[in-house]
Amino acid sequence: MSAEPSGPTEPPSTTAPHVVDGVDVQILPKVSLHDHLDGGLRPQTIIELADEIDLDVPETDADALGDWFARQSDSGSLVEYLKTFDLTTAVMQTRDGLARVAREFVLDLAADGVVYGEVRWAPEQHLARGLTLDQAVEAVQRGLEQGVDDVRASGANIRVGQLVTAMRHADRGLEIAQLAVRHRDAGVVGFDIAGAEAGFPASNHRIAFDYLAEQYFPVTVHAGEADGLASIQSALIDGRALRLGHGVRLAEDITVERQDDENIYVSLGRLSQWVKDREIALELSPSSNLQTGAIAAWGDDLIDHPFDLLYQLGFQVTVNTDNRLMSRTSLSRELALLADAFGYDLDDLETFQLNAAAATFLPLEDREDLAEAISSGFDTV
């Protein structure tokens, strides 16, 4: 069985219509900033790739396997949530496996109306079958480019870039930073650190971040998900982060002074004020934040998510999926869920996309063109 898909691929069920103001959100142009390659596999692809390497899977039916991922991920713990990646990364250890996953990733983004996406993944986790770091990056880039070509052949358009990620609990930060910079003119647009957050601050990788700063290479850092304000501070100071991966726990630095029937009066701490004033984008992922317990301090339902508080206060909020497989979601679904919870309309959804466009790691002129395309797309509905 070949690792390359044999024919046309269908979009996942998560791209079913999600309606806001009478408009199917799927047709709206969108930007995806925080989307993990190893968290966006199709269940059927996992089954087929696992069969090629004689790897046992919990379920051999695609729908049942999708259910398994959803159950395992809905634990309320980031540590438990991350264990599901043992299976997805296991089938992403060859050139063809990586290329297939990357190609389908792009097709699924395009089917959901995404016009620009940054795809993050950790090459150091994909070396078990003999690939080098550079070979892994090149395989993913090949798949991404195949996906873009397929989308264009269908009459649509999408652009993607890699965010090369280092695992924060490992000691390869500088090596992975150098890898990212080597491929900066071949598809890699930025750097990230990910993995278990608590106990592994960005400062552990300060030498890597120093190198990236010297190379004028953009950085986003997972922070404010499974750890609090100190982690965010380290991401900004030690990591020179231009965006915060999740960053939801920045709301811990916002104090509600009083409220009445119409207004909530708050004060910002120095950290949250800095993030707001510098317009540092928050890569918020509503469903994932619920699953991992990132918003446990505020509640356990979407209405409890501090997303709306941050938005109303003027923070640069963006909407993301994090891991489409584990959360069984899409960007359209996340936007529709927020609209339902907080009463957002299409103007709000456009704001979120313009925020994301401004925060991409594209050159300024390309960001401006992307913003124009988004506004044009929203104007036509």
TrEMBL record:
Signal peptide span = none
Query: What does UniProt give as GO cellular component?
Result: cytosol
Q: What GO biological process, any one, is recorded here?
A: nucleotide metabolic process
Which UniProt key words apply to this protein?
Hydrolase, Metal-binding, Nucleotide metabolism, Zinc
Reported cofactor(s): Zn(2+)
Q: Which GO terms describe its molecular function?
A: adenosine deaminase activity; metal ion binding
Gene3D superfamilies per UniProt: Metal-dependent hydrolases
Q: Where is the Adenosine deaminase domain?
A: 29-374
Q: Give the family this protein belongs to, as stated in its UniProt record.
A: Belongs to the metallo-dependent hydrolases superfamily. Adenosine and AMP deaminases family.
According to UniProt, the name of this protein is: adenosine deaminase
Query: Taxonomy-wise, where does this protein's organism fall, top ranks first?
Result: Bacteria, Bacillati, Actinomycetota, Actinomycetes, Micrococcales
